[in-house]
Amino acid sequence: MEDQRWLVVGLGNPGPEYAGNRHNAGFMVLDELAARAGGRFKVHRSRAEIVEGRLAGAPAVLAKPLSFMNLSGGPVKALADFYKVVPAHVVVVHDELDIPYGALRAKLGGGDNGHNGLKSITKSLGTRDYLRIRFGIGRPPGRMDPAAFVLKDFATAERKDLPFLVDRAADMVESLVRTGLEATQNAFHAGDLNPVKPPR
Questions:
Q1: Closest-CA residue to 21 (of 125, 74, 94)
Q2: For the whole prediction, is pTM greater than 0.70?
């Protein structure tokens, strides 16, 4: 079981114009994991950029789909099939509106909470039972449409803590691989930052 491969997917939209968006938190965490693994992303035929290596001692594939967010499922399913990764060893890192900024959560399964990337992955894999690292971005201020909010860059006040949160989310992925879900939840869920108030 120790040598069963893991597939870690960061969600985001490809292209420099989206790089700093809240919706691209998953890409940011995958960049950090790739840097730790000493790998460079290369394009795979599954329509994703990948790094193959080891994560917390286990064989792993790190992936950033090159499709847009709402079509993430195709590349994820193609990679899971190609590398023979079972859903229980798929970890998806994504932004989460229902969690305040500064909070990170690990979970298995559940709904998609209106997140189009998760919706696409659940449909393509045919199951909700994959692991998620939920990167809290909080709710938009005032009456801003959530769809517009996620496509904006992190606010100045948020950017101060962003490197710490990306680092911590990467630690959580490694912890999931090394110690499992329950131990990761116990170790990380108590250590949130004080949530940063969104700009009004």
A1: 94
A2: yes
